[in-house]
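Lecture 7 notes: from sequence to structure.
We start with the chain below.
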Amino acid sequence: MSHSNSSHLVSPSAPSWALGMRRITDYLSQDCLGGPRPWKAAWVINFQKAGTFVFMACLMWVYQNNSPAAWVYLALHGSYGLVWILKDLAFPDPNWQKKVTILGGINSFLFVLGWYWVFGWLLISGTSRPEYPLPDFAWFALCITLCLLGCVVMIAADAQKFFTLRVQRGLITDGLHRYVRHPNYLGEMMIYGSLALLVWHWIPVVVLAWVWLGVFAVNMVLKEASMSRYPDWAAYKKRTWWLLPLVL
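Predicted structure tokens for the same chain:
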């Protein structure tokens, strides 16, 4: 799930297409059809994250799949969900504390969070029968490495943001933010990219394209429009990369 949502101050210079996309996603995930708001957004997200390990283990039992790929997937996706819960307990993201309508919470699960569970189903059910470009053990090592590094980048970036902004508002230009402007998104993209590589099917590619372009990219564009109000923004932007050093 994306990290930052609509709590950023949005600059009037923000692109109209990004503002339009934000209004659509906010309505669908937070305000859809109005009515009671019994849930925090964090509860919906944490339900999916905490349930991932159990769900994947149940899939392995149902399909009697004890292959190395299934066990690696369970370890990676299931553990990432538990890492997220620990992160939420230690330094919860204030953006997810807002209340959402019942249909808004359901939409968040149906259109984003639930599709992440489909990744594991594709692999464990045998719907995806991957033929990796490298030998299995080498491909597993690649996916595990990418997922672990992604978890570290995501956790470090979110912790830095949470604890820095408690004592000082403004641009964060050191730590991981010294090199890239959106390390939290980079970390999560590495995590889900590793899962997609392990599944090796076209459906995760479509899901990640939608999330990364329709949600992550919009959030990053609006975040940068907000940060542009700081006097040192131009210099900071010039010496950093959007996501990947030396690439983007």
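Points to note: The chain has one domain: 16-227. The two ends are 22 Å apart (CA to CA).
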